[in-house]
């Protein structure tokens, strides 16, 4: 894999991305909203480059913030060690069956515990802990504060089995930099670990990394199978174990090559007002509410540390492309592994944040097949969280094309017969439809946008040229049509 073998940390990743011409720099931006706004403007471009912010107002040169790390196919393919020249189609093809393979092989890549690492170039105790010594952005105009945890990996363990979990939970700086709130959704593995620690010992150990190989953001931000350590999963992707150190206070692991890392304890009653924050749904998530908060026991950091920023917002946002690609691959893998026949493709659309709108293409083989696909896709673990619409289309429809999916809905769905709803399913506190104080249920629709099984042969023929004819005319007039295929 050449240069990809040399990537062990964020700096190695950044050096390779720069060599490939995938990085742009911005100098002199202010941490107060300017970094966030410039990043947002970048996400809206056709193929956003990675942005490095340096010379940030009020901070010394070299303290940098990176955004848009995986906002296009080339850098995401690079991060997943699949290649350095992939486009969208090649990336999807390269990912076929990979999530299942990585999950199955993860146990072979137990973390490599080392005595020390670059992250320990500076170790700061609680008396001098100050997260605002780093250029932590206020990402959105109406955020309730500065968020150091967006592209982060937050580590918790099962107190009984010791199995490690990494989650990308938002973390707001509190108490003038001496603490950070950790906003974990109740249904996530990390939240279960915290509850179990509280029941056993009255406190829960937590560590977090704020700058690392973006691969760790991929595994922390998507649903790795239960019981599989995200660090071991990352090892399977890399083809070699991840180096970790043990936190001096909690004993929990931290990536040895992290740029900035912290550790401390959560207590049931230790909470600070947190939020609002611009979330992946495209809305600010409510007002402020008390959230579990960690007083910082240790800060570890490298010289001139680089923060990995991944602020959400109205799609497209920092990690919406990454999530769409990864969720699509994971859901397709899970459907196929369930034994379901005929699954041709899955796409979790960016417009729904990579979660709320799924399209599944199927080659219908029996009566009821399309509905079976829809029901399974709507509730399987890889897709269940905050899912709202599952659209099942025939194999002649490209599930990645929102235009084609909506066309199939408009021409093959009878609203009275082909839309089913599920109630009181797994929602989220960040859902803008949820009312304050109400449990985070949601409702989801399964939309059958396939040709009716009873009319498969008699259904009207689609008015479009065949692939062979389109290829022929494209080859004949490549100067005019070459860019259209």
UniProtKB/TrEMBL annotation:
Q: Which positions fall inside the 3-octaprenyl-4-hydroxybenzoate carboxy-lyase-like Rift-related domain?
A: 114-315
The record lists the organism as Streptomyces nanshensis
| Pfam families the record matches | UbiD, UbiD_C, UbiD_N
Named from the GO MF annotations, one term is: carboxy-lyase activity
Read off the lineage from the record: Bacteria, Bacillati, Actinomycetota, Actinomycetes, Kitasatosporales
Task: Tell me which GO cellular component terms the UniProt record holds.
Answer: cytoplasm
Q: Which UniProt keywords apply?
A: Ubiquinone
- Please give the name of this protein: Ubiquinone biosynthesis protein UbiD
- Residues covered by the 3-octaprenyl-4-hydroxybenzoate carboxy-lyase-like N-terminal domain: 15-94
3-octaprenyl-4-hydroxybenzoate carboxy-lyase-like C-terminal domain boundaries? 321-449
GO BP term, pick one:
cinnamic acid catabolic process
Highest taxon of source: Bacteria
